[in-house]
Design brief:
Layout (H helix, E strand, L loop, with lengths): L3 E5 L4 H17 L2 E8 L4 H5 L15 H17 L4 E7 L2 H12 L3 E5 L5 H7 L2 H8 L3 E5 L3
Parallel strand pairs: 1-2, 1-4, 2-3, 4-5
Helix pairs in contact: 4-6
């Protein structure tokens, strides 16, 4: 059925739910998880600026270290469930990072959260779930959260 499941995360509650559900699925079918998060490099000057950024857009200003910490925390939870996991911190667009890892790893399923699919968030984020669902090399599971 599934042997490799890519899960895109950004530290949000929606992403945490995607990790929980993907972990349960992987455990039940004996699959491994490829955990992906993206970042954009940010200059020290920009990090020091006090520009308020909406929480669901924090991936834009997080340095690689923050992304790696998010990945490590999620990977730890996945390993505790007995599921093998590998992490991928990629520079650039989140949807492209997810799609690239899915193709590189020959994954059977991509799991992402639904946030950013409507309204202003869709405009700002370019809708990661929308782009992934239209360009994926495999099946896609979009986890719906409120």
């Amino acid at each position: 059925m599934f042997s490799s499941i890519v899960v895109g995360i950004d530290g949000s509650e929606t992403a945490r739910e995607a990790v929980r559900q993907a972990t349960a699925l992987a455990a039940s079918v004996g699959a491994r998880i490829e955990l992906v998060s993206a970042y954009e490099p940010v200059s020290d000057v920009r990090l020091r600026e006090s520009v308020p950024v909406p929480r669901d857009l924090h991936w834009i200003i997080n340095p690689r270290e923050d992304v790696e910490a998010t990945l490590a925390a999620a990977a730890s939870e996945i390993r505790e469930a007995g599921v093998p996991v590998e992490v991928f911190a990629r520079q650039g667009d989140p949807a492209d990072a997810i799609l690239d890892v899915a193709e590189e790893r020959g994954s059977d399923l991509i799991v992402v959260g639904n946030k950013g699919m409507t309204g202003a968030k869709r405009f700002l984020l370019g809708s990661v779930p929308n782009k992934v669902s239209h360009h994926a090399p495999c099946s896609v599971l979009i986890i719906r959260t409120v």
